[in-house]
């Protein structure tokens, strides 16, 4: 049963989840932290101050841990100065770790690159000099539209080094989406690549940048282009520059200066409940502290011996926090993979785990369910005995997928004790993990993210904001400010207050439904707003509806996220065509509209189904009843339709669907 639906039945089943997996005595004994960390974190401010000072090297110590006087606008580690790139790179080299591998890069076609901390430091210094030579200064914004290649990490860290604010745009977003993000942040520079590889074929990125910048009126002065797949690309003289030429010409020496703890580090756009994506702003000191801390305690990272692999794309927050920043700050060795899990065969991931002896794997439930579908015999062909910890993020993980992950991946090779699983709940806005078991401390439960990490105050409240007792459900909130919290929505502080701080007095509203079980453990039950979660990617129903309505054939559109066994949710669109729509003979309206959404927003937003309907179910006041559409999209009988202005509409739609 899907956990996406916040309904009683699903939860009743979960409540009967009796399985518990306490840490093995060996794991517990060697773990980075123990039970006493919870008590140590009770004095929250002192705890975070201590984390900030032990995890990071500050060029100037801070004077005040938290300034919440202008709530909900937080300032953490006030007066401190810190450089993210220095912490991720230079200090390790200074400590004699220059030869340690920072990144094992595995390209989709099979090319590889081993990059040590010394190499990465030099590349970032060169890139920092190169960007400065292009006039990029502290506070300027840089848009990054790159595939999963080391240059993505180099670019982000070079920006951080000079205090420029990066805004990474996922490569699966369209030219239009890229342009709106460039405009919103007023980016001065764009860093991109000719393209990448997808399922064995070259795929392009640069043409989208050219399209995005075709219309005048933008703020971009230069486009730096990494050559990845060598395809032919258009070139705008004067504006476009070659990455290699620029870096080769730049000096390998660059001194990192400390930036204010509250200096903006990056903007990352995420779907909201209205059409316009929100530019989530993260700053430096607090973000780095909490990402580094969680990466160490939740993944039990041993930097000298672990090989860590997070399969996320750099275009999402998981790639920011748990590829670019935390692992490098913690001096880890990580794997970075460019391509898809089934290229050239469905065992590619496991081949990579075997090859690099990956010990910590962090991925998403949608990937786990896909691998499950492909069959256990595929991972069984590889030696996965190096794996000692597994992480999950992005959406609720159903207990069946959790058990498969534990037994088939974590228990592979006949291990006496399968690797512990950490299900981590967090968001673009929270910047770092907020709810997760601690391996070595918590007895894990399949399907539940369980407990707030030490230092974080999470609760589940009812409509009026009262904490619910165990065994009950409601809305997930965060009661106290936390170091990695978003600071605002770029250019829109009012929207920041409205979206997150107005629903419940003095509490951060996450937009997720949740329940507490009889032990007080937290179960995440999916979004309670108009945000869908497809393969762990956030998509806004309103944004897709607007894209559909922008097509000349469409009069009206309603989009719902319907439960899907692999992707968690799937986008299903219901559209009413205009009477005068002239659809050419032989043209499939649904296919054309799917493609249109792909062009407007990006392939990830393409609806799985577009259903052309004669009417949409509306209340007498004209509100579209999405709940009923969700029922039909999920194959249920739409229940009570009596509040509809025209109760026969649903019968018509259901009849159409059956055809
Ligand atoms: C969902 C991804 C259940 C949730 C880091 C949240 C989860 C949204 C989990 C944020 C989890 C993330 N269990 N649901 N372990 N992790 N979510 O901003 O709905 O891309 O609000 O950040 O994903 O998605 P975002």
Topology record:
Elements: H1 8-15, H2 25-30, H3 36-40, H4 44-55, E1 64-67, E2 75-78, E3 81-82, H5 84-94, E4 101-106, E5 112-116, H6 117-133, E6 141-145, H7 150-162, E7 165-168, H8 175-185, E8 189-193, E9 195-198, E10 201-204, H9 206-212, E11 222-226, E12 240-242, H10 243-249, E13 259-260, E14 264-270, E15 278-283, H11 285-298, E16 307-310, H12 317-329, E17 333-337, H13 348-356, E18 360-363, H14 365-374, H15 377-380, E19 389-393, H16 399-410, E20 421-424, E21 458-461, E22 473-478, E23 488-489, H17 493-501, E24 508-516, E25 522-527, E26 531-534, E27 537-540, H18 541-549, E28 554-564, E29 568-577, H19 589-600, E30 609-612, H20 626-633, H21 648-658
Parallel strand pairs: 4-17, 6-7, 6-8, 7-14, 8-11, 11-12, 16-17, 16-18, 18-19, 19-20, 29-30
Antiparallel strand pairs: 1-2, 3-13, 4-5, 9-10, 14-15, 15-23, 21-22, 22-24, 24-25, 26-27, 28-29
5'-O-[(S)-ethoxy(hydroxy)phosphoryl]adenosine (WTA) is lined by residues 270, 316-318, 393-396, 423-428, 449, 510-512, 524, 527, 533, 538.
What does this structure look like?
This protein is an alpha/beta fold. 32% of the residues lie in helices and 22% in strands. Strands 12-11-8-6-7-14-15-23 form an eight-stranded mixed β-sheet, sandwiched between helices. A seven-stranded mixed β-sheet has the order 5-4-17-16-18-19-20, with helices on both faces. β14 and β15 form a beta hairpin. The longest helix is centred in the first third of the chain and has 17 residues. It is globular. The two termini are 26 Å apart. It binds 5'-O-[(S)-ethoxy(hydroxy)phosphoryl]adenosine (WTA).
């Amino acid at each position: 049963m899907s956990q996406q639906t916040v309904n009683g039945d699903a939860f009743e089943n979960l409540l009967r989840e009796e399985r518990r997996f306490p840490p093995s005595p060996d794991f517990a004994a060697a773990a980075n932290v123990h039970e006493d960390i919870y008590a140590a974190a009770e004095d929250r401010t002192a705890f975070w101050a201590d984390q900030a000072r032990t995890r990071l090297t500050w060029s100037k110590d801070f004077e005040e841990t938290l300034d919440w006087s202008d709530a909900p606008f937080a300032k953490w580690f006030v007066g401190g100065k810190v450089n993210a790139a220095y912490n991720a790179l230079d200090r390790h080299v200074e400590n004699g770790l220059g030869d340690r591998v920072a990144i094992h890069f595995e390209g989709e076609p099979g090319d590889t690159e081993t990059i040590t901390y010394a190499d990465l430091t030099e590349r970032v210094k060169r890139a920092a000099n190169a960007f400065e030579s292009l006039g990029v200064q502290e506070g300027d914004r840089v848009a990054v539209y790159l595939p999963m290649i080391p240059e993505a990490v180099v670019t982000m860290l070079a920006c951080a080094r000079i205090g420029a604010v990066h805004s990474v745009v996922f490569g699966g977003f369209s030219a239009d989406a890229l342009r709106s993000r460039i405009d919103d942040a007023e980016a001065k520079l764009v860093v991109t690549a000719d393209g990448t590889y997808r399922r064995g074929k070259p795929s392009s990125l640069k043409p989208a940048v050219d399209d995005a910048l075709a219309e005048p009126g933008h703020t971009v002065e230069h486009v730096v282009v990494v050559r990845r797949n060598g395809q032919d690309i258009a070139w705008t003289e004067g504006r476009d520059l070659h990455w290699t030429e620029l870096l080769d010409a730049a000096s390998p020496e660059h001194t990192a200066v400390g930036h204010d703890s509250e200096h903006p580090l990056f903007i990352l756009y995420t779907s909201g409940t209205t059409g316009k994506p929100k530019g989530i702003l993260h700053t430096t000191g607090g973000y780095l502290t909490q990402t580094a801390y969680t990466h160490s305690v939740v993944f039990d990272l041993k930097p000298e011996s672990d090989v860590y692999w997070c399969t996320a794309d750099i275009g999402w927050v998981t790639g920011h926090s748990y590829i670019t920043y935390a692992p490098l700050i913690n001096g880890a060795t990580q794997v970075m993979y460019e391509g898809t899990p089934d290229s050239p065969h469905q065992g590619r991931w496991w081949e990579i785990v075997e090859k690099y002896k990956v010990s910590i794997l962090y991925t998403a439930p949608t990937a786990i369910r896909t691998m499950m579908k492909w069959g256990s015999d595929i991972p069984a062909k590889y030696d996965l005995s190096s794996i000692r910890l597994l992480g999950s993020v992005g959406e609720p993980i159903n207990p069946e997928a959790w058990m498969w992950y534990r037994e088939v991946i974590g228990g592979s090779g006949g291990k006496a004790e399968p690797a512990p699983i950490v299900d981590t709940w967090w968001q673009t806005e929270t910047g770092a993990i907020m709810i997760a078991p601690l391996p070595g401390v918590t007895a894990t439960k399949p399907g539940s993210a369980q407990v707030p990490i030490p230092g974080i105050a999470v609760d589940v409240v009812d409509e009026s904001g009262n904490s619910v007792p165990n065994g009950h459900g409601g809305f997930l909130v965060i009661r106290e400010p936390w170091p990695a919290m978003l600071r605002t929505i770029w250019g829109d502080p009012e929207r920041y207050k409205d979206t997150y701080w107005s629903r419940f007095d003095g509490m951060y509203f996450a937009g997720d439904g949740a329940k507490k079980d009889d032990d007080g453990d937290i179960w995440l039950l999916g979004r309670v707003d108009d945000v869908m979660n497809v393969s762990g990617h956030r998509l806004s129903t309103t944004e897709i509806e607007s894209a559909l309505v922008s097509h000349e054939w469409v009069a009206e559109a309603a989009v719902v996220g319907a439960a899907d066994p692999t992707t968690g949710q799937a986008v299903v669109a219901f559209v009413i065509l205009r009477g005068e729509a002239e659809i050419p003979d032989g043209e499939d309206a649904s296919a054309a509209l799917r493609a249109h959404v792909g062009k407007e927003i990006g392939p990830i937003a393409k609806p799985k189904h577009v259903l052309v309907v004669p009417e949409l179910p509306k209340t007498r006041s004209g509100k579209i009843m999405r709940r009923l559409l969700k029922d039909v999209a999920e194959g249920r009988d739409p229940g009570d339709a009596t509040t509809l202005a025209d109760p026969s509409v649903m019968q018509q739609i259901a009849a159409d669907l059956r055809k």
